[in-house]
Amino acid sequence: MTQRQKDIAIGMILGDAYLQKTGKRNARLRLEQGFSQRNYLEWKVDQFKNYFQSKIRALERENPVWKKTYQYVRIQSTASPDFGKLRSIFYNSSQKIIPKTIAMIFKKPLSLAVWFMDDGYYYQRDKIAYLYIPNFDKESIKYLLEALRYNFNLLPILKKKKRGLVLVFSVQETQKLMSLIKKYIIPSMCYKLPLDPVSTDRKSDFSDK
pLDDT tens-digit profile of 148-182? Predict the structure, then answer.
């Protein structure tokens, strides 16, 4: 696995990706996105071409609470010790956690950008960003906040919403966040960026560098 792939994988794991254990040392990467975000899923798969042999599948899922059927797309990688190693870091048995060593591996703005594309939202009215996170234990949240502060100089506030836990960035912190991730946001996900004040378009100078 290349360093770029590792950086993207860390962002995906902090976000929506699931690592399924397949044997003692191997794991499989499972990716899902809403149907409207198929382009984003295709971009992810393209970054890990050497790990995917299957094709993207379109599926449906019923939400038992809202009694609605949702369409989504899914793909799974082949089993690999590379993903097995990442799973041993980010999972405690079957539960996703934030490891104590997160600040040592979560250092790149690319990882932060992928995480934001997965679980981040920008509210135009208030000019603030949110990052939704799972209901991690207190230790995991502590390590995550420390990594954001130490590596990115970001100081979000943890709040509890109806959808779960969320990191809320003030206007100033949102500006810092956007300056770090903007160039890595792919075109199909630029709707998550602030509107350009002159053209009213969301711009990205995403680069593969």
Answer: 999 999 999 999 887 779 999 999 999 999 999 99
Instruction: State the DSSP code for 140.
Output: H
Spell out the domain ranges in the chain: 3-93, 105-192
* Each residue's pLDDT tens digit, 131-143: 999 888 899 999 9
Q: 86-96 as b/e, with b when 16 or more CB fall inside 10 Å?
A: bbeebbeeeeb
**pTM greater than 0.90 (yes/no):** no
- Give whole-number Cα distances, 27 to 96, 131, 177, in Å: 14, 26, 32
CA 87 – CA 21 distance, rounded (Å): 8
For residue 103, give the amino acid letter.
Answer: A
Q: Of the CATH numbers 3.30.565.10, 3.10.28.10, 3.20.20.140, 3.90.550.10, which one belongs to the domain with range 105-192?
A: 3.10.28.10
Euclidean distance between CA atoms 121 and 129, whole angstroms: 6
Helix (H) or strand (E) holding 145: helix 138-152
The SS3 call for residue 75 is: strand
